[in-house]
Amino acid sequence: MEQQALVSVVMPAHDAERFIAKPIASVLAQTYRHLELIIVDDASRDGTLAMIEERARNDERIRIVKLSPNGGVAAARNAGVAAARGTYIAFLDSDDWWHPRKLELQFALMERTGAQISYTAYDRVGEDGGWLSKVRPPASVSYTDMLKSNRIGNLTGMYSRSLGDVPFRKIGHEDYVFWLEMVRRAGGATCVPSDEPLAWYLVRKGSVSSDKLKAARWQWHIYRDIEKLGLFSSAFYLLHYIRNAVAKRR
């Protein structure tokens, strides 16, 4: 299979010295070799920057962007996308990791079907390495489907630059808002047809995503203030979102 299109992988990092080695290794081990890994150091205060600089010296595919002062994950991702040179963009946080064939399978799917967005199944794991749950999304999603639930785990999504670049907003559920707009632009997104997880999401203790009430408030804000949905429609989609969120954790 010809691998001519460059895939840019954007990885924000802030005080990530404890976790980042595994995510970096999982990107560099991809069977799809034509990639660049853009690591955005978001004013880390630990040894993160020294660690990624060492790895960049050993692999020319790694590029480093430095932010100062700390701007947060949305600003870091935006800086990474701005620096990206690829035809496709994918994201991986500094504590998650990928299956070696993730990009290969996504690229092949998108080239074969013409899909502008692809995503994959993934597993949720704890800091102790224990398995928590599996997330097996549907074969395809539309914008309406995405209003009911965020079916695209940010660590699994990949999109074509032909869609344009949507900035991440500094709000709760910034990943969801990003993919919601991307799917609206593309008219849909397609999942790699495999029940095997192609990514692993680390659930860290005390993460903001674990605050269910706060998450529900964020979701309501997205429906009402960003998507400009009516009261009835917002309530309808919020009920679906809560139900699907519970199902994801099983």
Account of the 3D structure:
Helix 7 (212-226) runs antiparallel to helix 8 (231-248). The chain has an 8-stranded mixed sheet with strand order 3-2-1-4-10-6-11-9, with helices on both faces. A 4-stranded mixed sheet has the order 5-12-7-8. The mean pLDDT is 94. Strand 1 (7-13), helix 1 (21-28) and strand 2 (35-42) form a beta-alpha-beta unit. The chain has 250 residues and is α/β, with parallel strands linked by helices. The longest helix has 18 residues, at 231-248. It folds into 2 domains: 1-95, Spore Coat Polysaccharide Biosynthesis Protein SpsA, Chain A; 114-250, Spore Coat Polysaccharide Biosynthesis Protein SpsA, Chain A. The protein has helices at 21-28, 48-58, 73-83, 102-113, 143-148, 174-186, 212-226, 231-248, and strands at residues 7-13, 35-42, 62-67, 88-91, 97-98, 117-119, 122-126, 131-135, 140-141, 158-160, 189-191, 199-203.
**Low-confidence blocks of residues:** none
Order of helices and strands: EHEHEHEEHEEEEHEHEEHH
Rg result:
17 Å
Counting structural domains, the number is 2
Count of DSSP strands: 12
Number of helices: 8
CATH class of the largest domain: Alpha Beta
**CATH topology (level 3) name of the largest domain:** Spore Coat Polysaccharide Biosynthesis Protein SpsA, Chain A
Quote the distance from N terminus to C terminus.
37 Å
Based on the coordinates given, report the CATH architecture of the largest domain.
Alpha-Beta Complex
Report the average pLDDT across residues: 94
Spatial sequence of strands, sheet with the most strands = 3-2-1-4-10-6-11-9
Largest sheet: 8 strands, mixed
